[in-house]
Each structure stands twice: as structure tokens, then as C-alpha cells.
Amino acid sequence: MRKNLLFSGLLALALVALYIGPGTILAQNQITGEWTAEAKKEKSEKIHLSFERKNERGGRNQHGSTFDYNDLQGLNRSDTENGRVSFKIAREAGTIECEGSFAAGRGSGTFRFAPNMSFVDAMKTRGFDIEARPDKGNHNATVEERLFMAAMLNVTTALADDLRGANFPNLGFDDLMKAAIFKIDGKFMAEMKATGFPNLGMEDLVKARIFKIDAEFVRKTREMGFGTDNFENLVKFSIFKVTPEFLTELRNEGLTDLSSEDVVKLRIFKIDAAYVREARSTEPNITVEQLVQKRIGVRR
After folding, report:
1. Separation of alpha carbons 46 and 48, rounded Å
2. Is 54 helix (H, G, I), strand (E, B) or coil?
3. E strand segments, the chain
4. Which end of the chain lies in a sparser environment, N or C, as judged by fewer CB atoms within 10 Å?
5. C-beta atoms surrounding 224 within 10 Å
6. Exposure string (b/e) for 134-166, b if CB count within 10 Å is 16 or more?
7. Strand-pair partners of 83
8. Are the C-beta atoms of residues 164 and 189 closer than 8 Å to each other?
9. Which long-range contacts (CB under 8 A, 24 or more apart) does 167-173 make?
10. Is-contact 101 107, C-beta < 8 A?
11. Which residue, among 124, 137, 206, has the nearest Cα to 174 in the 3D structure?
12. Which residues pair with 110 in a beta bridge?
């Protein structure tokens, strides 16, 4: 009897393995938690969803994002007024299944994530290993947790193919997630390469997106008379809102031989054309350093 039971158990396992197929990883860590939602303004086609879950280490993780209603199977805007709901977000990395209720545009309930483990193999064939521990960030995240984040961000094989096609080396799976967050694609990569930055890494491209540095911004910087050999200078120009108009006003006041560092200093200390004009009325040859010292009250 025991032998028969053992044989039946082994046969069942063999059938499961046969059904799943070789190279596929069985999910061991089920991801469940709670969701909350807030519908956007009336007639908006977007809704904000937040997902909170416990991790294996006893902590809690919360992730929120704005979704189009088209991305939510089973949920329409009219459903957010009042009543029970059941909907899902189906992505390549897996499906987030949600149940709960809404009242006056606010919703809450529970969710369960069903990972698509074949996505792991699909990404591996493209050179992105989801199972590899990242050099930075959360080293202890399970494969299922990383798949959940990939589903939240809608990381796709198409994105992986696009970035690989742009010939940027040494990209990892975490880079794909950054690309999804900051909308970095092969076209943007190629444009930044063409502006004179062939060696930018993903962190640089993220900075470029955050500080709105694109090919047009680089062109305007060149028109202001500054080279683009230093990417960090572009970042500073963006942060401190260095514009062609600002530079023209300074040059009209006699500050014609300015370096990029000089311009940034003038912006940091809020030294504009009017301040330069007033200072030069008594000191015609005043330098940038002297303007800064005068602004901060340092006596010479």
C-alpha cells in the first residue's frame, strides 16, 4: 500500500515536471498583500494603485504607480464609484489579481501575484539574468519579488530587445527596471550617443531623464558656447536653470569670457544681469569670484 502511494506521488511529480517543461523554475514564494486605490480626476483615464506586502524578512514593501484603466482587466472607471470589484493586471512577468471594493473613488482589498516563470528563461536568453544578485540595491530579493516588480513596471522582452539593439554594454536586469521607470529606450540612448556621449551608462541616462537632458538640451548648450565633453556640467546647467537668455544677459553686461563653472556659480548665488550691472558701475573690471564674494558679503 505504501509502495503504491509512493509510486503515485512520484508519478504525480513527474507529470508536473513534464507539464512545466525543462528549464522552468517552480515558484516557491507566493506574494500576497493589500492594495489601495484612488481614482484620478473625473473623466481621467488613469488611476493610482498602491500595493503593500510583507517580505520574507518580516519587513513591509509598498509600491505605487499610476495605471491606465486599459491596463486593468475587469475594472472600469464607473466601477470605482461604489461596490465590489475583481480585476487583474496581466504582464509578461506575471499577473496581479485583485479583489476588494470601492466607495466614492477610493478602493482597497487584497491581491495575489501569479509569477510567469517562463519570463525568467526568456530574459536569460537575452542576457538578463533575473536570478543573479544585483551589485546594488536589494541583494536578498527573491526571484518572485523581482518578477513582481517587473510586472508593476511592465518590464517586457520587447524593452530588453530594444536596449540590446542600442549596443549599450553591461546592462543587467535592474537596468531594465530603471529603463522602464524613467522611460529610457533605444532611441533615447542612440540620441545621447550621437550628441557626443558614446560612453554613458544607465546611471547617466537616468540622470539625463531626471534633469531633462536630451539632444535638444545638448544643442542649446553648444549654442551657448560650451562644449559637451563633461556630462556632469550638463547636469549642473539643468539643475541651476542655465539658459541661453541668462547667458546672453550676462555677456551683454561685459562678462564675455565665462567658463561653465563660472556660469553655475553665478546661478548658485543668484547673480543676474541687474546685479552685475550695479557691481560694474563702481568696479568695471570685477571678476566672477569677486562678484560671488560681494554677494556673500566677503570684504576684500
Report:
1. 7
2. strand
3. 31-39, 46-54, 60-68, 82-91, 94-103, 106-115
4. N
5. 19
6. eeeeeeebbbbbbbbbbbbbebbbebbebbeeb
7. 102
8. no
9. 168/201, 168/202, 170/201, 171/127, 171/128, 171/202, 172/128, 172/129, 172/132, 172/134, 172/135, 173/123, 173/128, 173/129, 173/130, 173/132, 173/134, 173/146
10. yes
11. 137
12. 34, 99
Beta bridge pairs of residue 95: 90, 114
Per-residue pLDDT 10s for the chain (300 aa) are 443 433 344 334 333 333 333 333 344 567 999 999 999 777 788 999 999 997 666 678 899 999 999 999 999 999 999 999 999 999 999 999 999 999 999 999 999 999 999 999 999 999 999 988 765 655 668 899 999 999 999 999 999 999 988 887 778 999 999 999 999 999 999 999 888 888 888 999 999 999 999 999 988 888 888 866 788 989 999 999 998 889 889 989 888 888 889 999 999 999 999 999 999 999 998 999 999 999 988 765
141 three-state secondary structure: coil
Q: Is the dihedral of CA 9, 15, 19, 24 positive or negative?
A: positive
Query: Which is it for strands 106-115 and 94-103: parallel, antiparallel or unpaired?
Result: antiparallel
Query: Grid coordinates in use for 115?
Result: 509569477
- Rounded Cα distance, 52 and 61, in Å: 6
Cell readout for 3 is 509502495
Phi, psi of 228 (to 5 degrees): -120, 35
CA distance 106 to 40: 10
Strand, coil or helix: what is 239?
helix
Grid cell, residue 139, equals 541583494
